[in-house]
Amino acid sequence: MSFILNIDHVDMEFPTPTGPFTALKDVSLNIAKGEFISLIGHSGCGKSTVLNIVAGLHQATKGGVVLNGKEVTEPGPERAVVFQNHSLLPWLSAYENVELAVQQVFGKTKSKQETREWIEYNLQLVHMDHAMDKRPGEISGGMKQRVGIARALAMQPDVLLMDEPFGALDALTRAHMQDSLMEIQNELNNTVIMITHDVDEAVLLSDRIVMMTNGPAATVGEILEVNLERPRNRLALADDPEYNRLRSEVLKFLYEKQRKVEPLRGQKDAEKTKPQKTPEKTAAA
Amino acid sequence: MNAISTAAEPGRSPVLAKLSSWYASSGDWLKTSVVSLVGIVVFLLVWSAAAQNINTSLGAFPGPTAVAGQFKSLYAEHTAERAKAEAFYERQEARNAKRMEADPDYQPKIRKYTGKETFLDQIGTSLITVASGFLLAAVIAIPLGIAIGLNKNLNTAINPIIQTFKPVSPLAWLPLVTMVVSAVYTSDDPMFAKSFVNSLITVSLCCLWPMLINTSVGVASIEQDLVNVSKVLRLSALTHVRKIVLPASVPMIFTGMRLSLGIAWMVLIAAEMLAQNPGLGKFVWDEFQNGSSESLSRIMAAVFTIGFIGFLLDRFMLQLQKLVSWDKSSAVR
Ligand SMILES: Nc1ncnc2c1ncn2[C@@H]1O[C@H](COP(=O)(O)OP(=O)(O)OP(=O)(O)O)[C@@H](O)[C@H]1O
Ligand SMILES: [Mg+2]
After folding, report:
1. Is the full-model pTM beyond 0.90?
2. Which is nearest to A174 in space by CA: A224, A131, A140?
């Protein structure tokens, strides 16, 4: 199998007032063209950091990312990002938000007419063509996220990076968006890395689920192949034994192998002075 | 709310619904105007009662009627002066025509009428001065504010200077400005009077700061996500400023502009007094020097005029902000 994207032994250290903080240690991952990858792991383990390094928004301290045989050194539209909170420009309409991206990427190659059609096509893909002229302030959270996805898709990226794209949405809207995304994926077959907290979402959408260990010095823990037939249907899958096995694998990883007990607020400082404290005690206190 | 629910009721004609909604909204309007009217009446009563008890060397402090009378006579003076000017030009034209008839080679002399400035002329001068000073300040402050907002080091370098100059009174600047202007701005046929330039620069120096600070804060507090969008799209520096930075900070820039215009108008009066720029400030100063029995009521009339124009300027900026800004909530009140 040939890979389009290689994440190669990436380390990431953040400088902090108390010395460098190692967020990632030796993260390696190869992704094939057209593959849909989910990154899952506990909060704060470093998923966004991985994604930002691939996007070029962060520079890895060690190792690097190679896309199409070229090392990634800065952000660029061939690695479009869908941010968690849509990040549409609030003073532009949905159409204009997509237009800004299209102009930037295809301004020289597409004619006016083609540009217009391409923007409309992408907004249709996410079912937002009826509200093209609305500004972000006038549409719902789910609709904003759709426009954000349309903007990213319209760049025709080599890899589509999504950082918890549906994290801020309610369960019903979320399910809708997942279905939409599967439909789009069916048509375009993009290479996607998506961060999620949602086990069902990961299993439903992915070809592989990459599970990350807890930080600091987080790395790839296990990788789970999802060989469910496409197109997938959430209702039909509910009783599918393979689906349920995959689901419980992920749950086992998250809640047994990488069980995380967050100290309650205010106890964090106390914990620092007594580093020997066991997690159970912290939880009970 | 009211209007919608009545309009939705079946069986009622739209005309009726419209009428009743008009009634509902006019009720609100009526109430506010009655309340503000009461406020004004109370103020006038207190004022006239207090005025009678204040005796100055120029006579009793003017009450509302004296000031209202002054407005009338100021306007009358203005129309009289205009009539005089017109008559002057007519006479000049007639004289020149006559001379031309007698001697076709005669080059007609056109002189400008040099009558005294009326109150309305002075208002005009003040408005022109404040607008010029404000625009000059904006032209400097907004680009500089954007640069400071984008560059942390520049901000660290300039911030102490801003904080030091911001609280300086126009009265402290003016002597310096006057000296510098008279040294630097020398020409035989100056396009602008020195007094105008002095006032303008003083106004600029004082109203620069709110615009500068607000612009830089607005630019510096752009959401990181939006900056990331710009990075992913690889927008050039110029496009980044034009398409992301400027629109994102427009609400803050306008808040700064509104503050600045308020300060500019306040500073202007002081600057005109001292610089002898023929505007409202000079009017107040001249009346003060005059010391006639009417002076106080004329100054009081100027006070109301200054206040009202200041209010109008603020409303104007607010409307402009509403028109330009995408963030409608930033332009309330
Ligand atoms: N700029 C930074 N400076 C210092 N530490 C950072 C920085 N960015 C992230 N970190 C740390 O790196 C770790 C990983 O952060 P990251 O945002 O990648 O986590 P995450 O897995 O995306 O979490 P979440 O699921 O909550 O979004 C965290 O411990 C965080 O505190
Ligand atoms: Mg994150």
Report:
1. no
2. A140
